[in-house]
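DM from R.C. (forwarded with permission)

"hey, sorry to bug you on a friday — could you get me a structure for this? deadline for the figure draft is monday and I only need the backbone to look sensible"
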Amino acid sequence: MQKYTYIADVNEMKLILTINHATAVVPLYQVFTDGKLVGCLLKETLEENLVWSGTTLLTQRLALEVGDFIRRSDELTFKQGSLQN
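My reply, with the result:
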């Protein structure tokens, strides 16, 4: 399973987030810190616009920032994969 690591600035503290990629079984991006689930991110497409939302206050607050990071990471991974083929 693909995972992302993101360092967020929360209340002037650095918080390391581990994010599990969404799957067909679990359509949410699960967000962990220190091995504990702190919430989930949901990616939706509304009228060709990508919209991110969170299930907890922390993930709601970070949804746009982390969602953009995931999008850019996926695009980079896709481009690198295309160059290798």
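R.C.: lifesaver. The two ends are 22 Å apart (CA to CA).
me: no worries. The longest strand covers residues 36-46.
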